[in-house]
Structures are given as structure tokens and as C-alpha cells.
Design goal:
Blueprint: H1 2-15, E1 19-23, H2 29-37, E2 42-44, H3 49-61, E3 65-71, H4 72-78, H5 80-88, E4 95-99, H6 117-121, E5 128-130, H7 135-147, E6 152-156, E7 177-180, E8 185-189, H8 194-206, E9 211-215, E10 218-220, H9 225-232, E11 237-244, H10 249-259, E12 266-271, H11 282-288, H12 293-306
Helix pairs in contact: 1-2, 1-7, 3-5, 8-12
Length: about 300
């Protein structure tokens, strides 16, 4: 996803000199590639994320379109006050891109996991929040963020995520993507864990269960159409995310159901209000926390059996 992000940002920077790439010692080769091509449109602030966000706010007041990019945990948590007060309170045209969503930084432990960012940031007014699942979706989210006048937060993975969309895919800002259309179970997923959930749904299909799989990219504003349809059809609703079940996608959908008085049951699958266990590659840590395809399949099958 990092290469997809930088590739799209370079495309925008070539067309618009106001596009600025800000980073905090992310240290990737992709950043150096951007620097070689656009030496006057990139600034490295070092390990000073709060200063970077504040500077981005200043740049936005001067007509620039800054894309702030570094590890998601350091942006969502360390820089939260600056995102709130300097960017969102002023409703400035700053784009905040957190790399390493969920358990992507698996070998570095909970200090680097980004498993509470949606909960932390979605209560802040004026902030659009996007959670792409694939490289193509990253590029679409960057384009949408560029076109949107106002603050945007994008969380992206960084571990060679599988592509589920065709080359000509275009994301609809006012709709979610339905990847499987079944009537037995409504499964809502966000972010790079889509690959595990897709496998789990294929396992359900092998058992004769037909899930409806919906990939949610826009967390805020949230598009509730499929949730409403599932609730009206009496389908059990399952949410899956590489995030704390409190405040993330499960919280968004549970709020939609409760506020509208739909009377449906929401079954959350995610990090269950703990700091994630284990170290290693991302799949190892997912398994240690019950977020690999096999564990997700078993949880969804239990939901289907108990309904």
C-alpha cells in the first residue's frame, strides 16, 4: 500500500505544485523517490509528528495541500491534539495518512499497533476518515482526499495487501463495495484484514452458508444502506476489523442500528478491548489474537449456528 500511496501522490504532485509531502523519518525508498522527482514539495520533520501536523495547518492556510505521512500510531495518538485543534477546529485542508494500520507493525508490539485510531479520531468534527483495504483503494482514497476541501485521515496497511479490485475500479464515496452477495449473514469489514475475511467467507460458502460481504472504506461519513437492508431482512450482522471492537467499525454500525431503532443484533470480531498479544509477522500476530481466516470463519459460523 505504501507504493500505491506514493505513486498516486506523485501523480497529483506532478499536476499540482501545491501538493506537499510531509514525513517524520518514515525512511522508505518511496519517500526518496518522491524527493528525487519533487525536491521542492517534500519536507522531513524528523521524529516531531506534532510539529509536522502544526506546520501542515500553516501550509494549508497559505493554499498548499499538505499530505502528512508517518506511522499511524504516532499520528493518531501523539499528534491527536494538533489534529483536533490546529487542523479540524480550523477546518483546514490537511490530509493525514497513517501507515501501518491495525497490526501491520507486528514485530514492534502494541506501542506501534494502530488499533484504536478510528475510536480516537472519529469523534473529532470536520474529519473525513477513510480505511482502504487494497492498493487500488489507497489510490482512490488519495484522489478523494485531494478533491475534498477539508481534513481527511487515511489509514493504510504496509504488508503487500492482496488486490481485490480490477484495474478500472473507481471508488464511490457515497456507497460501500459488496464483494459477495448472499442472504444468510451480513459481514462488514474495513481495512487490510479484508483478505482474511474474504477467505473466511469462502470457507462459509463451502459449508453452504451464503454471506453478504461488504467492504466499508468510508468510516466517516458512514454509508448505512447495506446495514439498513441487512437489518430489515433479519440477517445477523457481523463486523470484522483489525481494531478495538469499541469505537471502531463495530461501534459505528452498532450506533447506526441503535439510533435508528432497527432492533438488529451486531456481532463484533476484532481486538476485544485489550492490547494485542504476540510478536512476529502480521499473520502470526493475527493468529495470536484470533484474527486470521480460520478463527474468523469459526466465529462467523457460531453466529450463523446460534441465530
Amino acid at each position: 500500500m505504501n507504493s500505491a500511496y506514493i505513486g498516486k501522490l506523485m501523480e497529483l504532485a506532478e499536476k499540482d505544485s501545491n501538493v506537499i509531502h510531509l514525513l517524520a523519518d518514515s525512511g522508505t525508498g518511496y519517500d526518496e523517490m518522491f524527493r528525487r522527482n519533487f525536491p521542492h514539495q517534500i519536507y522531513n520533520f524528523g521524529i516531531a509528528e506534532e510539529n509536522m501536523v502544526a506546520a501542515a495547518a500553516g501550509m494549508a492556510t497559505a493554499g498548499k495541500i499538505p499530505f502528512v505521512f508517518t506511522a499511524g500510531a504516532f499520528l493518531a495518538y501523539r499528534s491527536m491534539e494538533f489534529i483536533r485543534d490546529d487542523v479540524c477546529f480550523q477546518n483546514l485542508n490537511v490530509k493525514i495518512v497513517g501507515m501501518g494500520s491495525g497490526l501491520s507493525w507486528s514485530s514492534l508490539g502494541p506501542t506501534h499497533h494502530t488499533t484504536e485510531d478510528l475510536a480516537v479520531l472519529r469523534a473529532i468534527p470536520n474529519l473525513m476518515i477513510l480505511s482502504p483495504a487494497t492498493p487500488k483503494q489507497v489510490m482512490e482514497c488519495v484522489q478523494l482526499a485531494y478533491e475534498h476541501v477539508g481534513p481527511v485521515y487515511i489509514r493504510i496497511g504496509m504488508n503487500h495487501e492482496k488486490e481485490f479490485y480490477p484495474e478500472d475500479y473507481r471508488m464511490q464515496a457515497t456507497a460501500n463495495d459488496t464483494l459477495m452477495d448472499g442472504g444468510d449473514l451480513a459481514v462488514f469489514v474495513t481495512g487490510s484484514i479484508l483478505e482474511e475475511v474474504h477467505k473466511a467467507c469462502e470457507m462459509l460458502q463451502a459449508d453452504g452458508v451464503q454471506p453478504k460481504l461488504v467492504n466499508v472504506t468510508s468510516i466517516k461519513p458512514f454509508q448505512p444502506q447495506e446495514v439498513v437492508a441487512a437489518a430489515q431482512a433479519g440477517m445477523p450482522i457481523v463486523t470484522v476489523e483489525e481494531h478495538n471492537i469499541h469505537g471502531g467499525l463495530a461501534g459505528v454500525i452498532a450506533e447506526e442500528v441503535a439510533f435508528a431503532g432497527m432492533g438488529a443484533r451486531v456481532y463484533p470480531i476484532g481486538i476485544e478491548d485489550v492490547f494485542a498479544a504476540g510478536y512476529g509477522n502480521q499473520l502470526m500476530v493475527r493468529k495470536a489474537n484470533g484474527l486470521d481466516a480460520e478463527h474468523i470463519y469459526r466465529r462467523m459460523k457460531e453466529v450463523r449456528t446460534n441465530e
